Amino acid sequence: MKKSNQRRSELAIFGGKPVRTMKFPAYRPIGEEERLAVDRVMRSGILSRYLGVWHEDFYGGPEVQAFEREWAAYFGVRHAIAVNSCTSGLLCAVGALAIGPGDEVIVSPFTMAASATVPLWYGAIPVFADIEPEYFCLDPKSIEACITPRTKAIIVVDVFGQPYDADAINAIAKKHNIKVIEDCAQAPGARYKKSFAGSLADIGVYSLNYHKHIHTGEGGVIATDDDTLANKLRLIRNHAEAVVEDKGDTDLVNMVGFNFRLTELQAAIGREQLKKLSKLLSDRVANCNYLARELSKISGIRSATVRPNTTHSYYVQPFLYDEKVIGVHRDKFIESVRAELPATELRELEGTQISGGFVKPLYLLPLFQKKIAIGKNGFPFTSGSNPSTQSYGKGLCPVTERMYEKELFIHEFMRPPVTHKDLEDVVEAFTKVYAHRDELR
Ligand SMILES: *Cc1c(COP(=O)(O)O)cnc(C)c1O
Q1: In the sheet where 317-321 sits, what is the strand order?
Q2: Which residues form a coiled coil (predicted)?
Q3: Binning pLDDT at 50, 70 and 90, where does residue 3 land?
Q4: Catalytic site residue 212?
Q5: CA of 89 relative to ligand 1 center, distance in Å
Q6: Mean pLDDT throughout 250-263?
């Protein structure tokens, strides 16, 4: 074929003009209020006030304690316990539930890795259940099939901002006398019926890391209504072993503590962030509703449904992609959309904020494939007093694998302060790639 006869593609992935080059605006939940709050703490001279011994300051300083009170009141829980990350909060939760070697904890393969790996630190075995094809949270039926006499807890995840099926899963837990830990890092402000995510299980854990809806740079909060658990959680947060004797606590199970303390500076920021959550969330949800409506007009693309009687907080917005209808593999299509749209300010190095698949099913990580976790002898998988027979082969969770490999994509274009015009550009990029889909085959 002669070169002059070749029609140059309009798609940016093949060198055409992209729909947009001006970066999307940065998500900046931190503002003047937080700056003033930090200034207040700086002037006080007390950047943290914890003591890791049984003393008034065992519970932290005034900002930490005020932050905890305000968090508990907002989310309707009896105890809010500030920690330095959601990961450390999840560790405290596993510890407080007296989980140990020989125990099994049912986890999700489709989440940030920490929500599935924390049982390992207590010598317990993560057992992966599969997810729901509509909501991507743990599937109650799959959970039931994973329960054994060793099962001590389930770590559910409100993934993407969708609360887990609390009625069904809490009932299963009750029936088998096991506990539920809710990882609601992605779902602050989401609701299940009238209750907030984070208050649905025995223990809920929020994240305040930089990427979350509201943040303190790094940070987390543990929520529970149970006084005994709250006490253990606070002990594990702050050097339990050095505190229990003087405090008069005699239950020593997992009372080996850490330093998981949030600073006064972060707590002061967190108090201001909490005031902003509801507005930040409603703007985000409105943007998602617009994109759900517009992108679902493309045949083969469908906004994921929201569980009845819940609200979604859209940490990311999930869509389902049908390769049979569009005739192009999801990854090729999403790569083409990426080429049409720019990155977001402050996150330039990550590129355009859209991707296919979320995370590789966690049981496929080398940690599980090689069964090397704590030490070099396979503990807790194959060594120790109670070796497990758990296998982590490909095919273990077919729904998760399908979502990862071809059916799901997620984006973050909905973070305020994007404008209507910004969102229209996103829709235009999809419409353009769809119109030219034959060139992608
Ligand atoms: C972000 C996240 C975490 C970890 O939060 P950190 O505060 O960074 O430890 C855990 N689980 C989920 C689902 C998350 O999205």
Answers
A1: 301-303, 317-321, 408-411, 354-356
A2: none
A3: very low
A4: yes
A5: 10
A6: 98
